[in-house]
Amino acid sequence: MSRALLQDDGSGRIHAELAALARWSRQDAGEVTATFAPNPPWILTLPWLVLGLVLLVAAFPVNPQFFPVAAAIILVIFGGTALAAWLWARSQKTRVARHALLVGARRQVIPFATIDPARVAVSTRVRYLGRHFHSGGIRILQSQGATAIINGLNPDPGATSPHLPPSSVPSPFCEWGLAGEPAEVLAALEAAMVADGYPAHGLAQRAQSRTFTPPKAHPAQDLLLQRRALDPPLPQV
After folding, report:
1. Which phi-psi region, left, alpha or beta, contains residue 148 (left: φ > 0; alpha: ψ -120 to 50)?
2. Given the DSSP bridges, would you call strands 138-140 and 108-111 parallel, antiparallel or unpaired?
3. Per-residue H/E/C for 125-166
4. 187: Cβ contacts below 8 Å, ≥ 6 apart
5. How many CA atoms lie within 13 A of 167 on its CB side?
6. What is the DSSP secondary structure assignment for residue 237, as one 8-state letter?
7. Has this prediction a pTM greater than 0.85?
8. What is the C-alpha separation between 191 and 196, in angstroms, rounded?
9. Model pLDDT for residues 182-229, shown as the tens digit of each residue
């Protein structure tokens, strides 16, 4: 069965359609067919472990008799913080389901109908990536390393309003930096969207052809063209 991507047909129904899609649950997304976890988040955990080790070394000369207690306190605080950071980062998974993506620890639902197969890219690193999206922003699930970028629904209930012109409210769409190895995530997403009837052929290849490394300096414009409520999906070329 062929399905159409979400776009305005001039009838004004798109606001109701967006609101309905934003209410999708995990049940609406269907069975999960592939799950991708973020890269090991060393950047989040290593500083806490190093700082804890430094304090351990510094604590011994101060009071050797009190050292076992101090060591236990330091290990609990800094080791616990490092573990919590690790578990939080690892929870930011990307799940590909039959009809939608489930992202993050809360498994927010991004219906396939809202994903633009032409607004895709791959960033070789997550550092400085947020500087490339001034308009709608980007939500990054990957902890470090390369990440696949797509444009899809922002499940935030305050993302859109039918009572105001699209240019005056935040876009109901945003970019997502998906967790997992980009080529594998994009291949799974393309296969799922095509199997569900959406015109997503070439999505993975198109994203790979737009691989970039975000520089430290702020770019003059967004990497991907901002998508407002009434903007249609871009032509797939």
Report:
1. beta
2. unpaired
3. CCCCHHHHCCCCCEEECCCCCCEEEEEEECCCHHHCCCCCCH
4. 204
5. 0
6. -
7. no
8. 9
9. 999 999 999 999 999 999 999 999 999 999 888 877 665 666 667 877
